[in-house]
Amino acid sequence: MAGNAGGRTSPDLSELAADSASLARSGTAERVAAILRDRITEGYFPPGSRLSEESISGALAVSRNTLREAFRLLSHERLLEHRLNKGVFVRVLAVDDLVDIYRVRLLVECAALRTLGEPPYDLTAVEAAVSTGEQAALAGDWPGCSTANIRFHQALAGLANSPRTDELMRNVLAELRLAFHVMADPRRFHEPYLTRNREIADRLTEGDAAGAERMLAFYLEDSRRQLAEAYAERLTAR
User: What mean pLDDT is predicted for residues 135-157?
Assistant: First the structure.
């Protein structure tokens, strides 16, 4: 780890430099934004950290203009924020942000199940996410379990077969992960929901989309309440 801005230690950018290999010599801002989005949602750049324009453009071997456009795109997705005369930072969500994210999730995910039509459903992505989460939990890999849980909910929304819904959920769930990176104990927030993920997947396998939707609605409300309360406490302690 190297550097210190605002009391926070910045990551060693040698790992980020490896991502430059995935960029063509004419790499676009969208592709740079995709790399940074992945790194932010993985926690490589944690909430509150300052992103150095000079260091990141050098690590990715892109122009500053390209990087600034990528920053703009990620700011539009609510992952970054510009602070006057201070630079670009990974956002720290407010509790109200978290509540609103769950409001959107309830609307989108439940609607995806409500409009499924007649079974059987293509649950390949749903089943894969559930199984990956269960395997990660057995290995004690709670960050991996978190990622699998995100993929589970993305897969539920994906049952709507709507590219626009997929993009919306991708952005909403990426923003949600900013909250989880602030929390100290990921196991506490993911282990209890492994069984519920499996139960929802089983209901869908049985063709009971209405039952799965009811379970999901209660699930999201429980998750929102638990996370918002713990998150508020964590922000106060920071």
Answer: 94
